[in-house]
Amino acid sequence: MNLFRLCGDLSHVISIVLLLLKIRATRSCVGISLKTQALYLLVFVTRYLDLFVTFISLYNSLMKVLFIATSSYVLYLMLTKYRQTYDKDHDTFRIQFLVGFAIVLALLTPHRYTMLEVLWTFSLWLESVAILPQLFMLQTTGECENLTSHYIFALGLYRALYAVNWVYRYLFEPDYWQPVTWVAGILQTALYGDFFYYYVMSKRRGKKLKLPT
Amino acid sequence: SSKESEKDEL
Q: What stretches pass through the bilayer (chain A) (predicted)?
């Protein structure tokens, strides 16, 4: 475990805290894509099936449980308590394409053809594009609350920090070789490119995030 | 073999 990886994990946890804060503080899930949240739950469930077969560390296991639990909870809140505030009309991205993309690549790129490996590969490719419905929603509405923009930023930062961790591990761990993880992770980070730019610009002006329409 | 099957990241 190096510092980049640890900061990446922390950034991921912080993003979820920010999302829950946003929902509680505004008592609404306006501006949050239910589709992206559902995809994340699918990502965590398919990736962390190995909870039952492999033990890496207590830290890893607890984080896996935390990610599954919190993403289930967010989805639960959006579907029950705050359902009235969900902005369905702006959450129109067609996720069939994203799931199809992940299925095709999961069948083409696994390390070995076992159920767990294929599902794990599926989760990596799906995670790489799961933010698209959220970014699309932001694009169509043009702006979002500060907490929502911080949430998306922390979520993007997480994979960017992982990418630095991969470079570090590649340099210092002779056997470390995870090409699928790297390519999917870099794709994931690249999708945030525009968002990062407008986020940083809006923070420099001390204003809330607005996208050009 | 390589460490590829070792998934110690999240």
A: 65-83, 95-113, 119-138, 180-200
Residue A77's pLDDT is what? 98
Q: What is the mean pLDDT of each run of 10 residues along chain A (213 residues)?
A: 97 98 96 98 96 93 97 98 97 98 98 95 98 97 94 98 97 93 98 96 92 82
> Taking CB atoms and an 8 Å limit, are A112 and B8 in contact across chains?
no
Q: Can you tell me the distance from the alpha carbon of A3 to that of A8, in angstroms, rounded to the nearest whole number?
A: 8
- Residues with Cβ < 8 Å from A112, sequence gap 6 or more? B5
For residues A192-202, one letter each, b for 16 or more C-beta atoms within 10 angstroms of the residue's C-beta and e for the rest, the string is beebeebbeeb
Residue with tokens 């359902």: A83
A206 SS3 class: coil
Provide ipTM, 2 decimals. Answer: 0.88
Q: How far apart are CA A122 and CA A132, in angstroms?
A: 16
Interface mutation target, options A2, A56, A168, chain B, most CBs of B under 10 Å? A56
Is the predicted pLDDT of residue B1 greater than 50, yes or no?
A: no
Q: Any idea how long chain A is?
A: 213
The sign of the CA dihedral A21, A206, A9, A97 is positive
Q: For chain A, which residues make up each domain, given as ranges? A: 3-204
Q: Is A176 within 8 Å of B10 when comparing Cβ atoms?
A: no
Hey, what are A142's tokens?
């043009």
**Taking CB atoms and an 8 Å limit, are A177 and B4 in contact across chains?**
yes
